[in-house]
Design brief:
There is one protein chain. The chain has about 350 residues and is an all-alpha fold. The chain folds into two domains: about 80 residues, no CATH class; about 240 residues, MetI-like fold. About 75% of the residues lie in helices and about 0% in strands. The chain is globular.
Length: about 350
Amino acid sequence: MNYFVIGYYAVLIGASCYCAGTGKRGPFMTIFSLTLVSFFVGIIGGESALWSVTILAGLIAFAGGMAYAFREFLIAISPSETAKALRTAPLTAAFGMFVIVTYAIAGIFAPVIAPFSETEVISAAYAPADETMLLGADQLGRDMFSRLVYGARNTVGLALVATTAAFVLGAVAGMYAATAGGWFDQFMGRVADVIMSIPSLIFSLLLLSIYGNEAYILVIIVAIIYSPPVFRLTRAVAGNIVVMDYIEAAKLRGEGMWYLIRKEILPNSTAPLIAEFGLRFCFVFLLLSGLSFLGLGIQPPTADWGSMVRENATLISFGEVTPLIPAAAIALLTVAINFVVDWMLFRSSGLKEQ
């Protein structure tokens, strides 16, 4: 047993005792749980496993500190009402917002951030990382880092457009069906049931094999596949609103259908719809990435994270982690959005602290 192992356990046990003595129950449970985990991991894996635990704990601590600092920054620059809401945001939600903002900046300023073009061949195939190429080269000799940055624009941008199209189509149809009722409501409900009964991946593969895989076709297919779940949620939310007294009062004033939707129903259903938009974006994002991995999504030479995983999968056989970087980018954004959506759902559920 060397000095690292002795110092490692001494720090954890000392920190646990300090937290227990000062009555800090939450930090004590976290640190002592880490001590117990480290004890069993150290027995099984030895010193190298403890180094892995240390690095992982350091990354988590860094992410927590970054999330806290970013939350305080948002509070400082936000209006009073928004700042009050942000103060209740957990660190997970703050971390999710930080990741989303980082991806947005990378997508918007991709030509400025990326050192090379997404299609420029600058070296030999699978060249290792150096001072010019931070992540090495892909199977054609293109800079992986530049393509990863441009992928934030292409993959996330297309998913955002497709989600917006599906959301607008489903939300408008759902609010109109709840307000109009009758045969239109029944007809749209049956259409939504039929589309939702078909697995999304199989349905998308069928439509892509018939109509091709252009970007606008991908948007249309995603809108067709994911608008029925949005319709269902919107119909349920709007159905609880249209029976309210203020809706009846608006009808007695002679207000039309679209006035009721724009001025009465939509403002009172914003919170669940925004949360649904975040969740639906995750599904769309993963579907498009999966289609690109299968070769039916965004087509080469356009940089796309799903296709980047497929194109460089050969490197995994040689112990290289380069193909896992775009996969990690996909997973990180999905987790970040879910963190933010969970917080929004908690607030909209009425369980938030007063």
